[in-house]
């Protein structure tokens, strides 16, 4: 919750001071049989407390309390992020995690799903590449749907080779209609570029042209992926390179990327707000009626 005009609370001290100093001046009258009168001093004290509360409630209503739904698609802050995942034949190899027989692709997919679901304020999409690349899921705020869709992805479905340039170019295409100030492509591969019509160099230049940062992740044993090329892609696009030799390191990579700088996707005028000024105003009116009633009966 926040307030549209929070500076109005600065009026409270002078108003309370005025309320204290502007009390009614009572002229004492003496009567010998005071026992005939019932003095309710307790109510007099509470009377002033209620008046202070009335002023507080009225200032609160004027300040216009408002609740902004930060999880609403129109209010989110973050980046548009696309995960480009290598689905070549080599991603079907096991042994990346010695405790399980799952393939590299299955392990990478599960960690990527967790990453997507944890990015509460972002839009996310998925690109798969092998001999060619395709958009498995367009960039969307419905990240639960994206994560569920990834369960149907398998290695080899885009061919057996590794077209890294195609993966980057398709990621750029997925982000080309993005209105976000910050656009990120996370490229994961366990091999070297050996297929496709677009070179990684040209694809990286295309990403730079569209203001897309590329985070490259090499997965597998040392020497299996082209570390030099992945570093160059990341450096030229303003991203960073990470090497993951085991599942824990891969999870740590995504956690590191998760800490990247966030930026607003939508302009301020699109914020979904709910105003609650009527509640303190209603409370102030009720208390004023009570005060009026008590003073009328006095």
Describe this protein's structure.
By secondary structure, the protein is of the alpha/beta class. The protein folds into 2 domains: 2-69 and 272-297, no CATH class; 77-264, Rossmann fold, CATH 3.40.50. Helices cover 40% and strands 18% of the residues. The protein has 9 helices and 11 strands. It has a 6-stranded mixed sheet with strand order 6-5-4-7-8-9, sandwiched between helices. A 3-stranded antiparallel sheet has the order 1-2-11. A two-stranded antiparallel sheet has the order 3-10. The longest helix is centred in the first third of the chain and has 23 residues, at 41-63. It is elongated, with a radius of gyration of 32 Å. It starts with a strand and ends with a helix.
Q: Low-confidence segments, ≥5 residues, pLDDT <50?
A: 264-270
The CATH first-level class of the largest domain comes to Alpha Beta
Helices and strands, in order, run as EHHEEEHEEHHEHEHEHEEH
Number of strands: 11
Basic shape: elongated
Number of helices: 9
Question: Could you tell me the strand content as a percent range?
Answer: 15-25%
- Give the radius of gyration: 32 Å
Task: Count structural domains.
Answer: 2
Class by SSE composition? alpha/beta
Largest sheet: 6 strands, mixed
Task: Name the average pLDDT.
Answer: 84
Keywords:
Rossmann fold, three-stranded antiparallel sheet, 18% strand, elongated, alpha/beta, six-stranded mixed sheet, 298 residues
Topology diagram in text:
Elements: E1 2-3, H1 12-21, H2 41-63, E2 65-68, E3 77-78, E4 80-86, H3 104-118, E5 123-129, E6 133-140, H4 143-149, H5 164-175, E7 183-189, H6 200-209, E8 212-219, H7 227-237, E9 241-244, H8 247-258, E10 263-264, E11 273-275, H9 278-297
């Amino acid at each position: 919750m926040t307030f549209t005009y929070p500076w109005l609370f600065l009026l409270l001290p002078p108003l309370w001071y005025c309320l204290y100093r502007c009390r009614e001046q009572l002229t004492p009258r003496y009567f010998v049989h005071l026992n005939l009168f019932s003095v309710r001093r307790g109510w007099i004290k509470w009377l002033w407390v209620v008046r202070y509360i009335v002023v507080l409630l009225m200032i609160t209503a004027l300040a216009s309390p408002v609740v902004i739904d930060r999880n609403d698609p129109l209010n989110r802050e973050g980046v548009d992020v696309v995960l480009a995942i290598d689905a070549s034949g080599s991603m079907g190899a096991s042994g990346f995690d010695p405790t399980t027989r799952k393939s590299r692709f299955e392990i990478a997919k599960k960690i990527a799903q967790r990453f997507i679901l944890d990015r509460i304020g972002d839009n996310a999409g998925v690109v798969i590449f092998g001999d060619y690349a395709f958009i498995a899921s367009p960039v969307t705020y419905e990240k639960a749907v994206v994560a569920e869709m990834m369960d149907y992805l398998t290695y080899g479905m885009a061919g057996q080779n590794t077209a890294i340039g195609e993966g980057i170019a398709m990621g750029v295409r997925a982000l080309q209609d993005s209105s976000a100030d910050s656009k990120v492509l996370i490229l994961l591969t366990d091999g070297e570029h050996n297929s496709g019509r677009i070179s990684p160099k040209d694809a990286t230049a295309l990403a730079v042209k569209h203001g897309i940062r590329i985070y490259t992740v090499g997965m597998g044993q040392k020497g299996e992926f082209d570390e030099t090329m992945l570093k160059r892609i990341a450096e030229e696009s303003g991203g960073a390179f990470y090497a993951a030799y085991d599942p824990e390191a891969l999870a740590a990579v995504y956690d590191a990327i998760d800490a990247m700088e966030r930026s607003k996707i939508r302009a301020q005028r699109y914020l979904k707000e709910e105003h609650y000024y009527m509640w303190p105003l209603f409370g102030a009116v009720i208390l004023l009626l009570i005060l009026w009633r008590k003073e009328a009966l006095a």
